[in-house]
Amino acid sequence: MAEGLKILVITSELGGFSKSGGLADAVGALSQQLVRMGHDLRVITPAYASVEQRNQASTVVDSLGVPLDSGEIWCRVLESSLEIEPGASLPKVPVYLVEHEHFYSRKDFYGENGQEYPDNAQRFGFLSKAALQLGLALDWIPDIFHAHDWHAALVPYFLQQIRKTDSRFRKSRSILTIHNAGYQGRYPGYLKSWLKIDDADFHPDCFEDFGGVNLLKGGMLSADQVNTVSPGYAEELKTPLGGHGLHPFYQRLGQDFSGILNGCDYGQWNPEIDPHLPANYSSSDRRGKVLCKTTLLEEAGLKYQPNIPLVGMVSRLTGQKGFSFLIPALQEILEMDLQLVLLGDGEPGIADALKKIRKSREEKFYFKQGYDNRLAHLIEAGCDLYLMPSLYEPCGLNQIYSLRYGTLPIVRKVGGLKDTVEDYRNAKAHGNGFMFQEPTEEALIQVMRKALQTFQSHPKIFNKMISDAMNQRFLWENSAKSYQKLYFKALSSQALERPRF
Ligand code: ADP
Ligand code: GLC
Description:
The chain is α/β, with parallel strands linked by helices. It has two domains: 6-263 and 477-492, Glycogen Phosphorylase B (Rossmann fold); 287-473, Rossmann fold (3-Layer(aba) Sandwich). 37% of the residues lie in helices and 21% in strands. It has 17 helices and 20 strands. The chain has helices at residues 22-36, 101-104, 120-138, 154-165, 191-194, 215-222, 231-237, 247-253, 287-300, 323-333, 348-360, 373-382, 398-404, 415-420, 441-457, 459-471, 476-492, and strands at residues 6-10, 40-46, 58-68, 71-82, 93-99, 111-112, 115-116, 144-148, 173-178, 186-187, 208-209, 212-214, 225-228, 257-259, 310-317, 339-346, 365-369, 385-388, 408-412, 434-436. The longest helix is centred in the first third of the chain and has 19 residues, at 120-138. Bound molecules: adenosine-5'-diphosphate (ADP) and alpha-D-glucopyranose.
């Protein structure tokens, strides 16, 4: 690479700062890797109340005017950083924290008690517009604006608008990465004027969606390049069944839409060095894994039985993750010779159903509601099998982590899960996990039986599967190279002057 690119990453979550799911992990690790490769990459994200770094951060812009609604809204921008490797003399990733008392000083990122904050369109529209303004304030105009998910989907549109009037942005291009196409940022139509969406762009082939505003749709049609986080999901998005209602638009993006598989941050997720575990282990010496299992069982109040497999799950509690058929299947699954540990937070209805099951099967099933990073690591390490029966899965990181921890994944054959897990078929084609196709109780119960039988009756094969899984790698180095290619593709193409259709 001749010279590093100036890249501004716009995200609602960032690993080490704010995390509710894999978006934070993916954006954090990708940013670190691109800086390692020599790019001048910086991140802009909200200074939520829970972001501890706010206290040590310095002010970089005291008052930034953001033109939205009928005037300007003001915020302060702080500068912090994300270390690439703790203690190493590598450059850090600069992180701009947008401080706005009303928008971001709240208990959570997106909502409370299962209810979205009613002004999320404004909160994230503000972040997106601030990203454009920050470049001007710092006299640092990015070559690439890399926006993530619906929260930042207005960035490509705002870039188009400013490109028309300000020649400093003439060469800038936008990338929109879709980590979850099920969340589209749909809001009442009247918000379009607050968000500065032109009437001319409020039609069904752009931002308009059944009378409302659809930020993801308008954003993807405005971006110079669009991608999602696995090739499998990219293909599904083009189909009526998998496109979350937007499949014609993914189809029409043609060559400007692609899938790039996420990597795994092995600095964080590696049983050989993981500081959250009572003992470390490697593929050649797995003794430490037993101590992880006994510690986990003790914490869960379950009895240690060496020949009974322990199945784990760490998940946002939401329909995407397959609870609609997992919950009714649990009764039968818990009749099997296994124990199950589940950590998760999210929709109160799902949490209540799980609590009820926990009460009736306390000797076999442990459910902890909440967010707990240490326990998430211990579950990855202490279990024999990892369950991820998602209805849809753009990439999925947990199954990739579980492979590295030698905890064989049981997954539905969908999206990124089918790109990362290899199904056990027989003694010869033993793969590194277990897959099922239909999103039904029966199919799930059947695959659970298969996994159990392999654990109990074919320990040699099961052990071989574990070492194969542990030796597999999904490197961010490779994913970052694909993103770099995408940046150069965008930079060498003519800029879109207006949304596509
Ligand atoms: P998604 O982003 O759809 O939630 P991923 O598998 O890509 O799914 O990533 C989930 C990430 O969030 C993993 O790092 C996982 O450990 C973490 N996670 C999810 N729920 C919890 C929780 N309740 N406590 C701790 N970590 C969690
Ligand atoms: C989203 C997806 C998940 C993906 C993650 C990181 O949250 O649901 O599948 O792994 O983003 O890209």
